[in-house]
Specification:
The chain is of the alpha+beta class and about 750 residues long. The protein is built from 11 helices and 33 strands. Strands 1, 2, 31, 32 and 33 form a 5-stranded antiparallel β-sheet that branches. Helix 5 packs across helix 6 and helix 5 (about 590-600) runs parallel beside helix 10 (about 725-740). It starts with 6 loop residues before the first helix and ends with a helix.
């Protein structure tokens, strides 16, 4: 936060906190009593994260002065690139220049090293400070950072973006300018669901102190321009927007000391509902000096919510700091969820599992939901210090949509004292929040750490990529979708909602780079043009699968993967490549161009190079040109009709090589390439509840299923319109190869 808002707001919080302290409401302690219990709703995707080292993200080397006004960092946020789980971006407040600025820290190696830079274009000549950086990634891999600039007549909310994973940033654009003394706590989110009517729309919310209200604005052009702010009402402090799978946006708001409020838009932010009560809370308010047991706390603290949404089920998860049990437990982390877009919320539940009856504080909760539905929560915790002063980073997670939670684990390797290192003119701000981000196979957390006797930003990365799941079956993911998660004919996103990965250094078959947002994925031309000697003989027939020791495994991220044999088999034969020399990126999304190479090489299709390209968007310089043309002339691959080409900004005839390929599309291509005899079940009965005979892929999916090429989800769905991951792609191609009739003969 940049400041603690006007004096009237502070007085209101003091009054409300005092009144609430005398109430006797005590919610059920469901979370602590039901940890690790089984649930019929469980949607497991992985074992507990394997955590790496604690790494410092800020790179300043100043020796701190007596007032810490040249070395402090606090209030971090973080986001992971959905195309590269080693690439993360953090933002934080930074005093190394002698006044508050927002720094952006970027890593490309899993957090071992970071680069620090300022948002270009700030500070403005009439801005004296920056605060409250927020970072989000779009599904296309473009990153956005919003910054609160204040202390002058150009005070407002500014946004910068990066198209290269945070290596470089554009000049900031003003989302809103409100004049001196008018802005506080901004937040930023983006619609990442390709089937949403508002896909890629950015939403910003902030506190407009001049109005005494929360404001909301949206951008439809990647942050270049922003709509007129919409007044969401007050009182003000913290607003957190989250985007539902259908494109609705819910904003949770806190500021009155007694309730977390909410408002919703169903038309992309053009208009919003009136505020309504979401959850009743007991505010924690501690500023300047505050007694905690026998010790005095000198850093400010107040209730602040964090919220995240499951982009499959639509469940909303909210966590906050609550003082309702302060007299016996100290401050606790509380949790509630909504399964109906905020219409109703579950009974608030104590989330931290330390014993009750002890004055121990937990503070600064944050929450993220991975694409597989796993809910990740982290906070700072004093349970390791009987004096209730030193704190550590703690973490828990749920794989059954918040019904049960795993035991808390400590992640920080050194304790922190938030009473030290506070800049003298920072309104006692140590840290009003910490950050968390989660993608399919990675969770990343960032927090304020004082192990170096000053305020630094530390991070930790957890990997779930190598964890096997006993219920998995070849050809599909293992997570169990909610009953309401029924794909429609137009629903084409993957569980990670990501188009082709933007990695410009890959060899043929790897991701392609992108610099701009274009429908259907990246459009840039890679430099890895295949040579005539790269493909194997077009007449070769795959042999029986060897043991996984016939060539060295170069990929560090597939060991233990449930589809390791398939990936290794195809890798040894030059059919698949990694996204770099040592990473296959199994959770990455496969594109139509990448798959063309895999199917042509895997099934030994004849290689064809026509005199002129068959598709306007696949020039001869495109990395998969040879394979797309070969698949097309073999009758395995095809392009799109004129209407689809136009809708994606291409000139007919087009192939849209960077468009993500779906499970249904890939299955059909494997069946065709393998020469399987098409079959339809007797009586037209369907094997998967979401693939009826009317589905365009029905025959191909049934053929693949009855030839043991694929299987579906545990709830008997196949989800044909979900984009396919790179490891799933390898598995289906592998099964398609080894179950061909000629392969099955003795």
């Amino acid at each position: 936060m940049r400041k603690f808002a006007p004096i009237l707001f502070i007085l209101a919080l003091l009054i409300s906190s005092s009144a609430l302290a005398s109430t006797s409401a005590t919610p059920t302690d469901q979370a602590a009593s039901s940890r690790a219990a089984s649930s019929a709703q469980q949607r497991p995707a992985s074992l507990p994260p394997v955590w790496g080292a604690n790494y410092k993200a800020n790179t300043d080397t100043e020796t701190c002065n007596a007032n810490y006004t040249n070395c402090a960092q606090h209030e971090p946020e973080i986001a992971i690139n959905p195309h590269n789980n080693l690439n993360a971006i953090a933002t934080f407040k930074d005093w190394r220049a002698g006044f508050k600025q927002i720094y952006i820290a970027t890593t490309f190696d899993g957090g071992a090293t970071w680069i620090n830079q300022l948002p270009p274009g700030l500070p403005y000549p009439n801005i004296t400070n920056e605060s409250d950086g927020v970072i989000v990634f779009g599904s296309d891999g473009i990153a956005y950072v919003s910054v609160l600039a204040y202390g002058g007549s150009a005070e407002g909310v500014y946004v910068t973006r990066s198209t290269d994973g945070g290596a470089t940033w554009s000049n900031v654009v003003a989302a809103w300018v409100g004049g001196r003394g008018n802005a506080d706590k901004d937040w930023l989110t983006i619609d990442t669901k390709p089937t949403s009517p508002y896909y890629n729309r950015l939403y910003a919310t902030w506190t407009n102190l001049g109005q005494g209200a929360f404001n909301a604005s949206y951008s439809t052009d990647g942050g270049a321009t922003w709509s007129t702010p919409y007044n969401l009402g007050g009182p003000t402090w913290v607003s957190i927007p989250v985007v539902m799978p259908n494109g609705d946006v819910l904003v949770t708001m806190y500021g009155n000391g007694t309730d977390i409020m909410e408002a919703k838009t169903t038309n992309g932010g053009v208009s919003w509902s009136s505020q309504s009560n979401a959850v009743a809370i007991t505010d924690v308010f501690c500023w300047l000096t505050c007694q905690r047991g026998s010790n005095q706390q000198n850093w400010r603290m107040s209730t602040m919510q964090a919220a995240a949404v499951d982009r499959i089920s639509g469940n909303i998860y909210m966590v906050w700091l609550d003082g309702r049990n302060d007299a016996t437990n100290g401050w606790d982390i509380y949790y509630s969820r909504s399964t109906d877009e905020g219409t109703t919320w579950s009974t608030p539940t104590r989330l931290n599992d330390d014993p009750t009856g002890h004055m121990i504080d937990q503070v600064l909760p944050t929450v993220a939901v991975a694409p597989d539905g796993t809910v990740h929560v982290a906070w700072m915790d004093k349970r390791d210090d009987p004096n209730n002063v030193l704190m550590n980073l703690y973490y828990t997670y749920s794989t059954d949509q918040g019904v049960t939670w795993q035991p808390d684990v400590r992640l920080s390797t050194a304790s922190s004292d938030y009473n030290i290192g506070i800049p003298t003119d920072s309104n006692q701000a140590a840290s009003d929040y910490i950050g968390i981000s989660a993608i399919t196979d990675t969770v990343w957390i960032t927090w304020l750490d004082t192990r170096n006797n000053q305020q630094d930003i530390y991070t930790i990365r957890g990997s779930t990529a190598s964890a096997p799941t006993p219920t998995v079956t070849p050809g599909g993911p293992t997570s169990t979708p909610m009953a309401t998660d029924t794909p429609t004919a137009t629903d084409t996103p993957t569980l990670t909602n990501t188009p082709p990965p933007p990695t410009p250094t890959s060899t043929p078959g790897g991701p392609t780079s992108t610099a701009t947002v274009t429908p259907g994925g990246p459009t840039s031309t890679p430099t890895n043009t295949p040579t005539a000697t790269a493909p194997p003989s077009p007449t070769g027939t795959p042999t029986a699968p060897p043991t996984p020791t016939d060539c060295a495994n170069p990929f560090v991220d597939v060991t233990g993967n449930i589809f390791y044999t398939a990936i290794h088999f195809l890798s040894c034969r030059g059919v698949v490549n990694g996204t770099d020399a040592t990473h296959y990126s199994p959770a990455g999304t496969a594109s139509r161009g990448q798959f063309a190479k895999v199917v042509v090489l895997g099934f030994g299709l004849p290689l064809t190079t026509p005199a002129t390209p068959s598709f306007t968007d696949v020039p001869t310089s495109y990395f998969a040109y040879l394979y797309i043309e070969s698949g097309f002339h073999a009758g395995i691959l095809s392009g799109f009709d004129a209407a689809s080409c136009t809708a994606h900004g291409a000139v007919p005839p087009c192939y849209l090589p960077n468009l993500a390929i779906t499970r249904g599309q890939l299955t059909k291509l494997v069946v065709n390439a393998g020469g399987y005899q098409l079959l339809t079940p007797t009586g037209g009965q369907q094997s998967f509840s979401d693939v009826p005979p009317s589905n365009v892929f029905f025959t191909s999916i049934e053929t693949a299923y009855h030839n043991s090429i694929i299987s579906g989800y545990p709830d008997h769905t196949f989800q044909p319109n979900n984009n396919i991951h790179r490891d799933e792609m390898a598995q289906i191609v592998y099964e398609g190869l080894i179950h061909q009739p000629e392969m099955a003969q003795p």
